[in-house]
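Box S2. Input/output pair 1.
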Amino acid sequence: SVSFSIIIFLILNFISQIYSLTFSPNAANLHTNQQNQQQNQNYLPPNNVANTQLYSNYLYNLAYNDSDTVPDEQRLMAQLLRNYDPSARPVYNASNTVSVAFGIALTQLSDMDEKNQVLTTNIWLEQEWFDQRLIWNASDFNGLSTLRLPCSKIWLPDIVLYNSADDYTQGYYQSKAMVDSTGHVFWPPPAKFRSSCKIDVTFFPFDDQLCKLKFGSWTYDAAQVNLTKRRDNVDMSNYIKSGEWLIINVIVKRNDVTYPCCPGIYYPDITIYVHIRRRILYYMFNIIFPCIWLSILSLLGFWLPPDSGEKITLGITVLLAFSVFMLLIAESMPATSEMVPLIEIYLTIVMGLTSLSIVLTVYVLQLHHSGPVVTRVPHHFKYTLVHIIAPIIGMHETVAIYANEHNLTLSDDVYKCYSKVKYSTRKRMYKKRLSTPAESDDEQSLRKETRVPVSNGNLRPNSHNIRQATPPILLIRPRSSSRTDYQKHSPKTIQNSNSSSLHHHLFNSNMYLLEKHLKHLIVKQQNEEERNEIINEWKLMALIMDRLLFWLFTFLTLLSSVLSLIIIPCLKNSGYIPALTKELVHEYTTMKNTLSSSPVQNETSADQLVERR
């Protein structure tokens, strides 16, 4: 279709010239211009060099048929693009170098894909150079000194992003180039770049990242196209704030690099270093604070009564919640074994503490329910918990109250501590006792009289203890217990005795049987009291152990939280801990030492965002 249009154009042009020579020249020129303008509206400019040459000739002929009816820009464009080859460098002498000034204007940090290690940015590329073939005299075109030309019609430097994460088929937006009468060309195409960026998630979510954008000519070396910095920093005047990242500094550096394919040949490039820091407010409310609340919930498991049956359930639930947070963080982190994020280390520590608390809770439950099946609490174990650990963790009053309520046999120090308990506490305990069914005076006196003396915590009954615990009236034994009494009360004697002695003998026999049964009941009561005392002692040990584990795990949880969430991030921000990997720190420090760049214009004050490390 293009060739056919060109043939038609040539035929019509030939006919119009013959007509203009034969008939009226003015009418012929007017008619020809109308036809050419109509064809120009429906004409698509070609992309290859040969068709571009024909298109330039077409514009040239169109412009010079009647200069009075053709716009100045159209005539100038026709003149400049005539015999113009976009594939040739814009110099007449092949030994000359084209100097291209390159700069960028950063408009937005669109996205940072940590998992794929890709940084997405919106950038305006600023490229300017001198084209010796695009020079004209502005006075010849009514003072026209600037012109916008299609970028596909002029020579462009083949500058690409070296560390691009996308293919190179998309290219830039085909914006027009601004050309002035001196041959100065300025081409600022907007583009969205997806660049590869080495992600260091060691301090996530308090991490810093250093990303590079390396721009350079893909085919021209330094002798053909010299790439220079348009400015020493990056234009941030049109930057849109990012809700996730904060720009600390942006530095521009020029390099001359040789590659293995072409030894001895230097290829210039412009490398932009973008130092960014993650904003932590989102992660504080969505990850860190929930983890702290879950840690507190795991500590509350030590305050649950063992008889409730929910201690293990609470621990398992908290452990599952931590597992969910671990999965959420792992989905957004790169699958690398080079570093472990700080938040994952913190979650691992807290999960370990939660798992250990579940194991120790099982041990506490075993202590709580071990009374009926085992013997007494070992003396050294009881002494350690009651006399050493309980005062340290502030449970001496609790132990004294518990021992008094359950009639436990402890040392005198415990009961002295009970005497020092506040009056309000003892009054509350007294009211609690009044609310329970009171024992009769006879039951209380019997309990006091049948109380077994304890020596060194030994409550096992023996004949001596039983005899001491027997009421005095029950110690009267009938005289029939001896042989003499038996002979006196033989059947023959009984028959000869009077009625009073018979009643006395029956009374003594009944008392003996009563004493026997009461001794049996006393022994049974003593065994039951001993069993209850053993159970209460083990429960007291479990209570002390629960409180000890609570304070121990509280200390460990606070230590891990403060160390992971406060101390390490503060040390990183103050410079005591490198915020980046060793390779990036070395490259970043070397670059900053060799450059005297000024801080970039940022969205906040320079004192807050520009850090000199």
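Box S3. Input/output pair 2.
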Amino acid sequence: MDPAQKTGTQSENWERLLGFVHAELGQNTHLWPDTDLREDLGLWGDDAYEFLENFIAEFNLEAGGFVFSDYFEREGLKISELLFWKKRKEKKRLTLLHLQQAMDKGILA
């Protein structure tokens, strides 16, 4: 079900999340539950970290068990990473639906 069609707290959280994303990123694009922070919104590295820090603070969430490196690459490469290139582990997707679910539960995990 589209979060915008839900009632009560979940629908309110979806609207609050949309407002937050638009304010943080200054984007006037259509956002959907499956909008990916990295692929669709272009967040990575320090920008993604700052966005998530602000998200957690704005909605007073706990960050228990969330591993940033599972979802995003660091900014820049070290020389050793170039010299000893290994296939990088594919990153997990982090979507707006995941963020809304974190708001619903009070924890980004």
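Caption for Box S3: Residues 3-105 form one domain. The two ends are 22 Å apart (CA to CA).
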